[in-house]
Automatic annotation (TrEMBL):
Source organism (scientific name): Muiribacterium halophilum
Subcellular location: Bacterial flagellum basal body
Pfam families from the UniProt entry: Flg_bb_rod, Flg_bbr_C, LlgE_F_G_D1
Record-annotated Flagellar basal-body/hook protein C-terminal domain positions: 235-278
Protein's UniProt name: Uncharacterized protein
Length: 283
């Protein structure tokens, strides 16, 4: 009886975590380059159930056979295994701003933060007060100086998160004309100066969200950051989030109903347990 309460409680905790994830997705539906998350559950270890009134049969001192009929497995609940980020492509939105860039394909922009290099899909850049190309929060955008000859699979970031090539900032002035082609080459007033670092990691699912639309690569399982020839840069465009607001609202309703179901199970278990104690205990 108590086991049923624990099982339902674990279900409520899972649905609460799932609701938090969905709420965060909905809150970032208009965040540039945001990638939605999902809560992944796993079963807790199940128990093997047998009839308890049957006995074991002994054949000599060393051989013992369990004669109790096997009933089946009893689940003991669930728990949150991980919060997984879904790195699918978001829709592109035209802005006609020469400093807005959208990544089409795999990979992320590299930006320099106070805590080191971090990665983002948000390409809403601007000219910083320091005279360099920066993101919306003023973090310097990383690039390679031209001529930068890149081939498919070239390593840009090693397994320790360090740049394998010399990267630098992109100097740009307010009056400069900035053009970027599909390969990420930056032209300042018609002159090629840099190439934006768009890094594709071997296992992006291990990249960690740290807030502010940034990702960290402090997990060794992320692997190397490589150049991907199939990735394109679209200038004057921004990538929208990959959150489907209708689907998230449906998921929210599903979570609410699942939570209520587990809640009713606990109420039923508690009521049955109360009757058991009062009726059986009084005899």
């Amino acid at each position: 009886m108590i086991r049923g309460i624990y099982t339902s409680t674990s279900g409520m905790l899972c649905e609460q975590a799932r609701q938090d994830v969905i709420a965060n997705n909905l809150a970032n539906v208009d965040t540039t380059g945001f990638k939605k998350d999902i809560a992944v559950f796993r079963d807790k270890p199940s128990m093997q159930m047998h009839r308890i009134d049957d006995k074991r049969k002994f054949f000599g001192r060393e051989l013992e056979i369990d004669m109790r009929p096997y009933i089946g497995k009893l689940g003991t609940g669930a728990s949150v295994d991980e919060i997984r980020t879904i790195h699918t492509q978001g829709k592109l939105q035209k802005t006609d701003n020469n400093l807005d860039f959208a990544i089409v394909g795999e990979g992320m922009f590299a930006v320099d933060t106070e805590d080191g290099i971090r990665y983002t899909r948000a390409g809403n850049f601007k000219v910083g007060t320091n005279g360099y190309l920066v993101d919306a929060e003023g973090r310097n955008v990383m690039a390679l100086k031209e001529p930068a000859v890149m081939n498919e699979g070239n390593i840009l970031v090693d397994s320790k998160g360090e740049f394998a090539l010399n990267a630098s900032y992109v100097p740009v002035g307010e009056a400069d004309k900035v053009d970027v082609n599909e390969a990420g080459q930056v032209f300042i007033n018609g002159n090629p100066t840099h190439r934006l670092m768009v890094v594709k990691f071997d296992k992006p699912k291990y990249m960690r969200k740290i807030g502010y639309n940034l990702y960290a690569t402090d997990d060794d399982r992320v692997g190397y950051g490589r150049f991907n020839d199939n990735t394109k840069i679209e200038q004057g465009m921004l990538e929208k989030s990959n959150v489907n607001i209708v689907r998230e609202m449906v998921n929210m309703i599903t979570v609410h109903r699942a939570y209520e179901t587990n809640q009713r199970c606990i109420t039923s278990e508690d009521s049955t347990l109360g009757r058991l104690i009062s009726q059986v205990g009084s005899r």
